[in-house]
Amino acid sequence: MLYREAGDYKTSYVDDGQSFPIKFDRIGFYAVLLVAFAVIPFLINSYWVNAIFLPFLIYAIAAIGLNILVGYAGQVSLGTGGFMAVGAYACYKFMTGIDIWIDGVQYALPPINIFFSVILAGFVTAFVGVLFGLPSLRIKGFYLAVATLAAQFFLVWLFNKWEWAYNYSASGQINAPERGVFGIPVTGPATEAWATYLFCLVFVVILAFIARNLTRGSVGRKWMAIRDMDIAAEIIGVNPLRAKLTAFAVSSFYVGIAGALFFSVYLGAVEVGEAFGIQKSFLVLFMVIIGGLGSIFGSFAGAAFLVLLPVLLKNVLVGGLGWPTDLAAHLEFMIVGALIVTFLILEPHGLAQLWRVIKEKLRLWPFPH
Amino acid sequence: MNMKLATLALGAALAAGPALAELTFTSLSYRTGPYAANGIPFADGYADYFTLLNERDGGIGGEKINLIECETGYNTEKGVECYESTKGQGALVYQPLSTGITYQLIPKATADGIPVHSMGYGRTSAKNGSVFRNIFNYPANYWDGASIAIKHLLDLNGGDINGKRVALVYHNSAYGKEPIRTLEELAKKHGYELSLLPVDHPGQEQKSQWLQIRRERPDYVLMWGWGVMNQVAIQEAVNIRFPMENFIGIWWSGSENDVKPAGEGANGYKALTFHNVGSDYPIFDDIKKHVVDTGKAAGAGDQIGTVLYNRGLYAAMLAAEAARTAQELHGTAAITPAQMRDGMEGLSITEARMTELGMPDFGPSFTVTCTNHGGDGYGAVSQWDAKSGSWSLITDYMQSDQDVLGPLIKADSEAYAAENKLEEKKFCP
């Protein structure tokens, strides 16, 4: 009944090639956008934004980025936390005005608008990502994972050590000063809930849309060809150097933007070892695996699962049942862990596969014969 | 999506919260994670003092106290969630017990008009109340600690430590980096050599740092550690047979949990403190009678009298006294966070008052003023006796080197004001 292609005629290639070819899908997509842009901003307060929506949106960007690399191009990466740190520190330098010392003379750019700082931070991270992606041309699988793990530890060490990156502050912390777009602050303490939410939402929508179309197009097909069998891909004319490095560049661009937003809009003050440690790399990798490798929807689902579940459990156990906080915190680990394990046993391809199955069922429902 | 809706519905139901007639305090505690060993006693002490006030006195000024505990796991993201979820319930003051979370809360809480009390941690230059209007860090801060440690070394060496070598083993984070600038300034003044040895979170791996200490044989080692890092460092120091009386930790590196794993070897280890140790105070009788015996003790109830429990107790006492001061200043029992801020700024802790509270000579007496949110910077040195398993103060309370710290605090707070475009408004007369 739902999701049926029957009767959904396409009379041009443009129609046939659109992002959501099935009409029901398209309507659903527009409905979600409408709710996200026109309804939620009026309903949320700072708790909803800071505890749920901002982490969800930002982790969704990071998960999409990692999914491009791991899910589409098949290159394993454990450096996500480090690349997020690059994005965060680059964004900090751009938003406070980059300074360079040459022969004792200081040259400084004026502070750049936060929107463009975030995008530039993405480009810086893309460059760093390509550098650390170079080993992928020689090594694969677990060995590549170890190489990217080195990136994770190196980058965290670098941002702890390199005083220029944190503007020589005594504590080594970076703090986001107040910056805004169109005169409305989106970073710093005096932000409105809806402003930070919309700022991140714009990035999520644009980036998810680009990712969806990149992965459907020739670039994405090359990535998938490399993922499925790199020798065969090379024989049919896919350049592995370009395919792998573009995957690293695009993935790091996304992860860098996630890091920049994570620091500037969400947390406001960041300490590299604590915020961008190895745990962050694993967290995003879990989101991708639980959500489903090679799926944009899966990235959202995985991010939602791992961001919302702990908050939900905490609210139920501590707020609802009044249990001691330590007991609840320990139970939370156990419940989330158990759910992940059961879930992956029952559906190894993640939430995205579950969604696909539901869609198949809905197509025939209510007459499954 | 269903999950999100469920969360929305649930959260909306929960956000309604309890009535605001009570005085709401929050405890952003951590009873889990690599820092739990230190987080638990502090949280227990903090909670027990408020339970005591509720049970014995019926709250503060006739208003019952509602303590909301929120688990942060020493993690800044969870800290943000805790702050956002509790601030709507009328929290009067935040004490996150984490330098990272404090940095996060400084701008947020200032914008929301809620005071933060980072007692002996957080951003040192918050002492300058004309810039950091809502942030308090009395009675002492890290730079005081660094200066007191050096003062102690001066006392040991007859006032001259020229040419001595001092190593700083520190948690490689905002917390551990805090004292470096002060120690460098003091090195210029007193002529000792400072070497820096960072230890990465969580600090379980310190072999290379202690190998370096073994090779270079510094005369003294200072430590800015927390959680499991302390235990490992003290064990490593024992392993390389570093003389324990030359090893001095900051007040966060001086609890029973830190020294006990090293057994006899830790005997003689020193740590700074800004309050007294032990349970030989009248207030502990009250705690036993009203809190422990009635089964209302927080946690497992096995931490009473430990160093960090006492610190939690002390923090709660200062918060309660500030609330009382605010009630007197504003003539109302149900105070708001803004009034609480005024109470903290008007706080004066005297020996007489501490005796009245059953805590004679528990901490230094000090007065908070509008320009000085940090107290007078008094601290003492305590030493661990492994045989009797107890800490004891081996010096009097001494004041930090205000001539060196004053300009540093001024410079750092002005840098913060410039960075955030705060003009030093005429808050203070």
Automatic annotation (TrEMBL), chain A:
It holds the Pfam family BPD_transp_2. It is a multi-pass membrane protein. It is found in: Cell membrane. Its main location: membrane. Keywords: Cell membrane, Membrane, Transmembrane, Transmembrane helix. It comes from the Bacteria. The chain crosses the membrane at residues 27-44, 50-70, 82-102, 114-134, 141-159, 194-211, 247-270, 282-307, 327-346. CDD domains: TM_PBP1_LivM_like. The keyword Membrane applies. One of its GO terms (cellular component) is plasma membrane. GO terms for molecular function: branched-chain amino acid transmembrane transporter activity. The keyword Oxidoreductase does not apply. This is Branched-chain amino acid ABC transporter permease. It comes from Marimonas arenosa.
Automatic annotation (TrEMBL), chain B:
InterPro entries: Leu-bd, Peripla_BP_I. Residues 28-385 form the Leucine-binding protein domain. Keywords: Signal. Gene3D superfamilies: 3.40.50.2300. It holds the Pfam family Peripla_BP_6. Residues 1-21 form the signal peptide. PANTHER family: BLR6548 PROTEIN. Belongs to the leucine-binding protein family. This is ABC transporter substrate-binding protein. It comes from Marimonas arenosa.
